[in-house]
Structure formats: C-alpha cells, structure tokens
Amino acid sequence: MALNSSNVPADVLVIFGITGDLARKMTFRSLYRLERRKLLTCPIVGVARDGWSDDALRDHARAAIKATGEPLDDSVFARFAARLSYVQGDYTDEETFRRLARAVDGRRRPVFYLEIPPSLFARVVGGLAGAGLTKGARVVVEKPFGHDLASARALNAELRQLLDEDQLLRIDHFLGKEPAMDILFLRFANSVFEPVWNRDHISCVQITMAEDFGVEDRGHFYDPVGALRDVVQNHLLQLLALVASEPPSAADADALRDRRVDVFRAIPDADPAHYVRGQYEGYLQVPGVLPGSRTETFVGLRLEVENWRWSGVPFFIRAGKSLPERVTEIRIMFKRPPRLAFAEGFAPEPDQWILRIDPSPGMNFRIQAKQPGKQDTQLVDLDLLFAAELGEAPEPYERLLSDAMQGNASLFTREDSVEETWRIVQPLLEAPGDPERYRQGTWGPAGTSKLVAGYPRWHEPWLPARSPD
Questions:
Q1: Which of 32, 106, 125, 464 has the fewest C-beta atoms under 10 angstroms from its C-beta?
Q2: pLDDT tens, 3-13?
Q3: Is 321 known to sit in a ligand binding site?
Q4: Which reactions fall under this protein's catalytic activity (predicted)?
Q5: 469/249: higher pLDDT
Q6: Does 177 carry a binding-site annotation?
Q7: Which has the closest alpha carbon to 281: 83, 65, 437?
C-alpha cells in the first residue's frame, strides 16, 4: 500500500515523452505560464528516448513556447530553464529508471506525467515501481484511457496492481477549461438559475463541439478512433455531467467527482436508434485512412438522465469535423411559454441559456422582448464575453498541471467515472452502422435533424459579434 500523497505539493515533476508533440504544443507553454505567475516550486525532469542534453531540452523548450505565440520574457524563461534537466533512455530498459532514480534522489513527493501512448502506461509505471519511485508519488496519464469498456477495465486493473486510485490522475483537459469550471458556479452561486434547472422548466439540452477542419495529416491516429471515442466518451460526457449534477456537499475532490459519477450512473446505455454517424466527403482520401473505412468524423446522439431532476429531458450531443465553425457550446432550451392572448395569440420562441466553452468563452441568455411598434416578440441576446469582464484565465493544461503538483484531484477523472462513460457508449461501439456522407462546411448528415424531432431544432452556435479588448 502506497502512502497517501493527496494534497501534498510535489517536490519534483517528471515528464515522460517530453520531446513529443503534446509537450511542444501544450506542456512547455503551460509550465512557462505557471513560472510567470510564480506557481512553479519544483525541478522538472524530462525523460525520453532522444539523445538530448539538458541544454538541448532548454533550447527546445524556448522554441516550443515561442512557436505557440506566447510572449517570452527572458527573465521568466531563465528561471524556468534552470528547473529543467533531462534523462535519456528507453522505457523498456531498467537502467533508464535507475538513472531517473539518481536524478530525483532525495525527492519524496514526485509527480510523474506520462505524455506517452496508453500502451506504455503499465510498462512505465512498472519501471517506476521497480526502481522504488512510486511510494508517495502521483501519476498523471493522458487519454485515451481504454478503447472500450473491456480495455478500460483491463488498463485500470493493470495500473491498480502498482498504484492506489488516489495516486492516479487521469487528464481530461475539458475539465480544466475555465468555462467548464464556471458551470457549477453559474448554476449554484446564482439563485435565479437553480429553481428552473430541472424537468419542470427545461425542454432539452444541446451540446455542440464543432471543428472547422478535417483530419488533415492525422489519418493514422484518427482512423482507429473516430469521433465517438475521441471527444464524446470523455470531453462531452464530462460537460453533460457538470450541467446535470447535484451540488457537492463538500469541497474535497471526491465530493465533486461523486456528483459527476451520480449523473453517469443515471444515464441508461445509449440507444443505437438515437444515434447518427457521419463521414465527411474526402475523408477516405486522407493519408493514413484505410480504404473503405467506416470511421465516423461526426456523431449525433440522444441520451437520457433518469433521475428526479432530469427525467424526460433529452440531452442531445453533436460533434464533428469539417463543420462550418470551430466552437464548443452548451445550450439549455427552456420550455415554450403559452400563446400570448395580448399579442394576437403569438407563440414565443423558447428562452435559451448558452455557455460558450471555446473559443472566446462567454455566456448568452436569449430571451423574448417586444418588437418596437408591433404586438409581437423577438429573441434578444444578453451576452457576456468572460475575458472582457473577468480578465485572462489560465489555460487548461496550466490549471491541470498546477492541480496535479498541488495534489488537487477534483478536475481529474476517477476509475468509476471512466468505466461508466465507456458503459454508456458501448452499445454504439458494438452496433455502429454505416456512416452517412456529408459535405464539408455543412452541419453534418441529414439524419442529425431527425434526432431532435419533437424538440427545438439544432441552432447554429452563438458567435459573439464583438471580441474581447
């Protein structure tokens, strides 16, 4: 049994795969921003197969940060670079872990961040355990955590032979997005929302994640995965849980995660009859995509949350590539009010509450107002861009890496959460059906509109006309 390492700040951060794409695009920038805000307090050791020196790693970090567009302050980078060191070695070689043990000698609260393929998780954790490095440690792993329910359970079983659950932090970067965290505060810190946040007042919930680009040069990665595994089983179900959860009764990590798991347990297995798969025209010509591939680049589905708050309120999800816009949003559709006798029997459109996750996070409340000079109404927007009013927010990986080093697990997914979300989508994996073709630059296959029959139609995403200053 390992020592409980929760809520104890790390005294070293070790990053496996530090020479890879994720580190280049996300990790270095996030750590640099933490350094700028004086929130880094420990050394950082990179581990990878490449034969680099410490100076080569520092040069690579500088170039990676500049390539993201992050303004680089030389004095801040000098502090950051002084924390960096490098251990070269193959993950299958026990000598790699012995060298790492010497590099972190004297450290008692390490955080190991595995920016490596899931197939290597157990091998690396086994190497760490063999070198006596897992006692008092936390291990951060990236998605995908399994390919389906059976593989997720098998991976959990492998890792749990070497680690306790409270040592294992599974990253879903959507939970680190500031507007995703805003959901609980907007719901429960404002008494105007909570009384109407239920089946008595809400008709349905629509969650959209649209990307205006295709698979491009990632065919080898994307084709075995598809949209359902890539973004629905993890990111979008986590957003759904934040929208639907009950208020936590305490501030600790498990209280927050328990409420999300409660939602997942209340969701029946997804019904293939309420599932639409699409594939954009031209996908089969993408390098790395198998001939005749049936992989979906678009999914639409309907889920139910069978509890007292939400029974009878469908949750509609759509996600896809090569759509007209890049946007992630949650749209709460309230019930339509009765016909207005004083407005010549006009039936107003339902009110809508919209939370924009990205880009340009914000909130919009669409309500009815009288049209000037007419006995009629129209929808008006009461909108707010968060950056304009609240200032710059931390990046998702900036927040998550800081939380991992501080021992705050509330924004990481737990074993039961991962298995429940795989359980929900498993019937869709087992009976996928052929994908419908759709033209690039459209909102997906025609069947998506039938998915919401009897409920408010899909709306084009709310795109603010103005940008934050």
A1: 106
A2: 344 568 999 99
A3: yes
A4: D-glucose 6-phosphate + NADP(+) = 6-phospho-D-glucono-1,5-lactone + NADPH + H(+)
A5: 249
A6: yes
A7: 437
Q: Give the pLDDT confidence of 395-452 residue by residue, as tens digits.
A: 899 999 999 999 999 999 999 999 999 999 999 999 888 999 999 999 999 999 999 9
- Angstrom distance (rounded) from CA 361 to CA 393: 10
Question: What angle do helix axes 237-244 and 415-430 make, rounded to 10 degrees?
Answer: 120
* Domains present along the chain, CATH in parentheses: 12-142 (3.40.50.720), 175-394+415-452 (3.30.360.10)
Known catalytic residues are 235
Distance CA 13, CA 176 (A): 19
Nearest Cα to Cα of residue 241 among 183, 197, 299, 199: 183
What's the token pair of residue 381?
A: 């927007």
User: Among 425, 459, 104, which residue's Cα sits nearest to residue 274?
Assistant: 425
Cα–Cα distance between 362 and 182 in angstroms, integer?
A: 10
Tell me which residue of 302, 316, 236, 229 sits closest to 272, measured CA to CA: 302
How far apart are alpha carbons 38 and 25 in whole angstroms?
Answer: 21
Q: What single letter denotes the amino acid at residue 132?
A: G
In terms of Cα–Cα distance, which of 324, 321, 307 is closest to 218? 321
Annotated binding-site residue? 50: no
135 is an annotated ligand-binding site residue: no
Distance CA 438, CA 251 (A): 45
> Are the C-beta atoms of 436 and 449 separated by less than 8 Å?
no
- In the block, residue with structure tokens 């890792």: 159
The candidate with the shortest Cα–Cα distance to 358, out of 389, 325, 391, is: 325
- How far apart are the C-alpha atoms of 17 and 2, rounded to whole Å? 25
d(CA 353, CA 358): 16
pLDDT confidence of 374, banded at 50, 70, 90? Answer: confident
Task: Tell whether 403 is in a known binding site.
Answer: no
Output the six-digit token pair for 355: 């939370």
* 55 marked as binding residue: no
* Tokens 């298995």 belong to residue: 419
* Beta carbons within 10 angstroms of residue 115's beta carbon: 22
Contact (CB, 8 A) for 363 and 383 = yes
> With a threshold of 0.85, does the pTM exceed it?
yes
Q: How far is CA 313 from the centre of its chain?
A: 23
Widest Cα–Cα separation across the chain: 82
The continuous run of DSSP H or E covering 122 comes out as helix 121-130
Q: pLDDT digit string (tens) for 21-76?
A: 999 999 999 999 999 999 999 999 999 999 999 999 999 999 999 999 999 999 99
